[in-house]
Task: structure prediction
Amino acid sequence: MPELPEVEILARHLAPLLLGKTIRAVEVRRAKVLRPTSVKQLEKKLVGAKFIQLRRRGKYLLFDLKKKGEGQFTCLGHLGMTGRMFLQPHGAGLPKHAALILDLGKLRFVYEDTRYFGRFTLDTTSVESLGPEPSSADFTVAGFALALKRSAQPVKVKLLDQSLVAGVGNIYASEALFRAKISPRRAARSLKREEVQRLHEQIRVVLQEAIDSGSTIPLDFAGEKTKDRLFYFGRAANAPDYYEERLLVYDRSGKPCPTCRTPIKRLVQAARSTFYCARCQR
DNA sequence: CACCATGTTCCTTG
DNA sequence: CCAAGGAACATGGT
Result:
């Protein structure tokens, strides 16, 4: 489930379910996801604590908790590539790769992650190095331009740098560049002011549209029936029963560019796939 | 068997 | 200190 929009949708889904609930017990099935926190440290801190707020920063979830008579503290969650978080009744089947289970009384919170790349930890230092939130006023064209100027890397690769702007991942990097009509191969520092401006705007637009789209779809957070690929489809305006593909270039190599019909190309940069239209993107 | 996958972090080199 | 490149992490789908 993981770029900024997916995490935002998850945060909105979980917040009302978690707030006010108290953790009765903690079960850690894969201690690796707590790193560098130990099982003991997590248990000691979480058992008896109540959720008081849930925030998102970049692709991270920040769970604010508090125990009676003690100070507030924060737990950090990240979904890695394959993580999910959801609530379920006790007795419901646990997924094969359940990494952490929090007993909330009537319900339990499950963090499962097939590849265990994600985290659920007391160490919140990762958020310190994040760049501005793309939707906030802190994400300025001037600041973005300045950061791009310092890099000789291809702009697509640079967009994945979370210190530049927080939350853009491999899918939306390709999508934003397509919409801004900029080639993913361009050196970050070579972009003209107008191009930086277009890219800045399209990053904001593509992420916001994804959040809006995700909000209207009945998502299956537990992932038992459907796959979360569903998230990448938008509800078609006039046909309520099927989902129209929403991504314009990602994972569409060989398919026609939505603008000019030229086949979409796939390129490997920094060991990640990039998709683009060689005709529309210069 | 081969290659691919929504991400971050660590290590090395310059 | 910074930028950049590459491997590592781990499991599953095609």
About this structure: The radius of gyration of chain A is 20 Å. Residues 32, 80-82, 97, 113-117, 150-153, 157, 270-271 of chain A lie near DNA strand C (CB under 10 Å from a C1').
